[in-house]
Amino acid sequence: MHAWPASEVPALPGKGRDLRIHDTATGGRITLDPGPVARIYVCGITPYDATHMGHAATYNAFDLVQRVWLDTKRQVHYVQNVTDVDDPLLERAVRDGEDWTELAERETALFREDMTALRMLPPKHYVGAVEAIPGIVPLVERLLDAGAAYELDGDVYFSVESDPHFGGVSHLDAEAMRLLSAERGGDPERPGKKNPLDPMLWMGAREGEPSWDGARLGPGRPGWHIECVSIALEHLGMGFDVQGGGSDLAFPHHEMGASHAQALTGAYPFAQAYVHAGMVALDGEKMSKSKGNLVFVSALRRDGVDPAAIRLALLAHHYRSDWEWTDQVLADAVARLARWRAAVSRPDGPSADALVDEVRAALADDLDSPAALAAVDRWAGQQTSGGGTDEGAPGVVSRTVDALLGVAL
Ligand code: 5CA
Ligand code: ZN
User: Fold this and answer.
1) Is the pLDDT of residue 292 over 90?
2) CA–CA distance from 216 to each of 40, 130, 226, 227, 263 (Å)?
3) Domain 304-405 has CATH 1.20.120.640
4) Which of 44, 60, 142, 288 could form a disulfide with 314 if both were Cys (CB 3.0 to 4.6 A apart)?
């Protein structure tokens, strides 16, 4: 499917720094060493409701990863999926008496608009689960042939024991895995499975639900993890640089995805780094479509909030922290945007030479966007107190904020 238009990324003087980032699998920071073309896969939305601030915060984190890489003069090969067929989407369509494809198309279109307004760089390949099915079926067949999958009453399961590295992404104990599996789309209680954690690769057709030709597998639809693995392997290949998503995807989604790919290819690792963004909450609870405690990007835009202010609100929090969306968070961002815009609206100002490097250093250090904002705040403060006559400095600041933070002043 098509993605959304890219906003231009201005080139900055000099060259950016290499990204050090927290990797869930090793539990520490690693310096990524991508080739001239950095490869990143970020898990996309399940389009049954509009983009909320939690989604926006997660995509903001991975947009920063791309911007840091672009600043090191690399190209970025970015892939994102859309889980346009899955239980929660089908359930919502039934609840609302709506055709599930129409629901998915409408919410995906709205997501594109939100991402465009927020100046998130688009993926090069934006792929829906439905369009990925012809690539998924042969992968499931290969896993069956390799003895890494088995059939159970018309469904096909992946055997977690087939990957010696299973557990190496999230490092959870068995009980924690079992609980999270039950909470996040798994079925650990189903009788007949070899291991309660084994996830579904192919779900045999269910009465009243959509299904596709699965060749040897029979009619059905794909499991969740194999969807992302198929898309990532097709467009990026094994060993790509970053697998990204919110922290709720570390287990089971990214753990299972890594094992599927490792069992399929015999190679290791699936991704060089597994990067997870913290959860955004509202009224003390994780914002989630299933709970309905949501603040939508599109609703704020409709209320006339400048998307640049929304973006500054996201950037004010470190991507790995869990944080709470409040009216004050937005009010602070609106005020900061006004201060910055006033500061760059003059033709001259304090030197911006140090600022470019401060923002670069902050982002290269595990995407420390609050430190990057603080550096721009300091420059804007000097500007307000009349400290400088460097011609063109405001332009350099604007371009830095645009290129590295995705905020148009
Ligand atoms: N389609 C799958 C991934 S393949 C999925 O998780 N879709 S989603 O719509 O539920 O979430 C999309 C992305 O937003 C995921 O990376 C998820 O981790 C992230 N996300 C969801 N809720 C929040 C939240 N409250 N805070 C931060 N990130 C969130
Ligand atoms: Zn995914």
Assistant:
1) no
2) 32, 18, 17, 18, 20
3) yes
4) 60
Angle at 295 between CA 293 and CA 301, to 5 degrees: 160
Q: Which atom of ligand 1 is nearest to the CA of 249?
A: 18
Per domain, the residue ranges of the chain are 20-286, 304-405
Q: Is the peptide bond before 252 cis (omega within 30 degrees of 0)?
A: yes
CA distances from 295 to 46, 78, 312, 322, 328 (A): 17, 27, 16, 16, 14
Q: What is the residue whose two structure tokens read 């499931």?
A: 140
**If you average pLDDT over residues 244-258, what whole number do you get?**
98
pLDDT the model gives residue 288: 82
Those residues whose C-beta lies under 8 Å from the C-beta of residue 401, and which sit 6 or more positions away, are: 340, 359, 376, 407, 409
Going from the Cα of 253 to the center of ligand 2, the distance in angstroms, rounded, reads 7
pLDDT at 291 over 90: no
CB of 275 within 6 A of ligand 1: the answer is: no
Contact 264, 177 (CB under 8 A): no
Strands 220-222 and 200-204: antiparallel
256-265 pLDDT, tens digit per residue, is 999 999 999 9
112-132 mean pLDDT = 98
In angstroms, the CA 254 to CA 274 distance is 8
Ligand of minimum distance to the alpha carbon of 86: 1
Interval 384-408: pLDDT, tens: 998 788 999 999 999 999 999 999 9
Of all protein residues, the one whose alpha carbon is nearest to atom 12 of ligand 1 is 45
Atom number, ligand 1, closest to the C-alpha of residue 45: 9
Pocket residue to mutate for ligand 1, from 58, 79, 183, 243, most atoms within 8 A of Cβ: 58
**3-state DSSP call for residue 404?**
helix
Of the candidate CATH numbers 3.30.1360.170, 3.40.50.620, 3.20.20.70, 3.40.50.720, the domain formed by 20-286 belongs to: 3.40.50.620
What's the confidence (pLDDT) of residue 323?
Answer: 97
Buried b (16+ CB within 10 A) or exposed e, 203-215: bbeeeeeeebebe
Verify whether ligand 1 is closer than 6 Å to residue 81 (CB atom): yes
For the cut 90, the answer to whether the pLDDT of residue 312 exceeds it is yes
Q: Whose CA is nearest to atom 9 of ligand 1?
A: 45
User: Which residues fall within 8 angstroms of residue 133, CB to CB, at 6 or more apart?
Assistant: 212, 221, 222
State in Å: Cα 69 to ligand 1 middle: 23
